[in-house]
Design a protein that fits this description.
Strand order of the largest sheet: 1-2
Structural class: mainly alpha
Strand content: 5-15%
Number of strands: 10
Order of helices and strands: HHHHEEHEEHEEEEHEEHHHHH
Radius of gyration: 24 Å
Length: 270
């Protein structure tokens, strides 16, 4: 269930309505703490038992070590409260007594690197959480030790994590979301989002492939303007194939205008 948007968020302000990378990082940290309290990391990272001590999970390591081995970041976990705290735009050179700023392009490189790392960690966590399934013999009563699960269901834990992260991601920069399959993707405006989410009613494999390709390009986190133009051309190629049907269903002038846009505005034949 999506989290409610409170006043400042509805106005596009505050840490949820207009979040910084630091706000997003803090959101992920708090969500992960909640997952830990719910024992949603037990399958991968084990548990502490009153009798057996530490019992390894599937990763045979802790979360920080697993993140480093899988993603390559030496300081991938825990997340910093502000991933950009090391960046300053104002420098002073005592030798020349000159004050200067970090070039904007270098700042963008630093921001992109911090964002890449955070988004990688978000996807990683989504892949490594699961809810334990309560069953006879799995609860250790000694000193209230707790549940030692043997079987797990990822779906409830992943749903919760997506709900927490997606309370912030859509408002961050151009808008993102953590998809049900665990990928950080660009969001779309509400009306377009409804259109994208509507099942495509076709048995034509080529049409299905082209539309899916266009949607994937549009949702790519690192999409470029050139790639978005490719996506638009893919969709116009689909419309061309459907033109007889379109002609029968639309007002003649509207159908003509649609293909006038496609063919005479440097979209398809540039």
């Amino acid at each position: 269930m999506p989290e409610r948007a409170y006043w400042s968020s509805r106005q596009g302000r505050g840490p949820r309505g207009n979040p910084t990378l630091a706000d997003l990082s803090r959101c992920v940290s708090l969500a992960t703490q909640e997952l830990e309290r719910r024992a949603y990391f037990q399958e991968w990272y084990g548990y502490i038992c009153e009798d057996q001590g530490h019992v390894d999970g599937k990763a045979a390591s802790d979360l920080p070590t697993h993140i480093e081995s899988a993603l390559g970041y030496r300081h991938g976990w825990p997340l910093p409260d502000d991933p950009l705290s090391h960046i300053t735009t104002d420098f002073y050179d005592p030798d020349t007594e000159t004050r200067y700023s970090l070039p904007p392009d270098q700042i963008e490189v630093e921001v992109q690197a911090a964002e890449d790392q955070l988004f990688d960690v978000i996807e990683f966590i989504h892949d490594h959480v699961s809810q334990g399934i309560e069953e006879p013999g799995a609860f250790h009563q000694h000193n209230g030790c707790g549940w030692h699960y043997k079987h797990f269901d990822p779906a409830p834990a992943q749903d919760l994590f997506r709900s927490r992260v997606n309370s912030v991601l859509p408002s961050y920069r151009d808008g993102f979301r953590l998809s049900p399959d665990g990928h950080v993707q660009h969001t779309a405006p509400p009306a377009l989002q409804d259109l994208i989410d509507t099942p495509l009613l076709t048995t034509d494999e080529e049409i299905g492939r082209r539309v899916s390709s266009a949607i994937s390009i549009y949702r790519k986190r690192d999409r470029t303007s050139d790639e978005q133009r490719v996506a638009v051309r893919e969709l116009f190629d689909v419309l061309e194939k459907l033109r007889p049907l379109i002609r029968s269903q639309m007002i003649k002038g509207d159908e003509a205008d649609l293909f006038n846009i496609a063919n005479n505005f440097s979209l398809r034949h540039l």
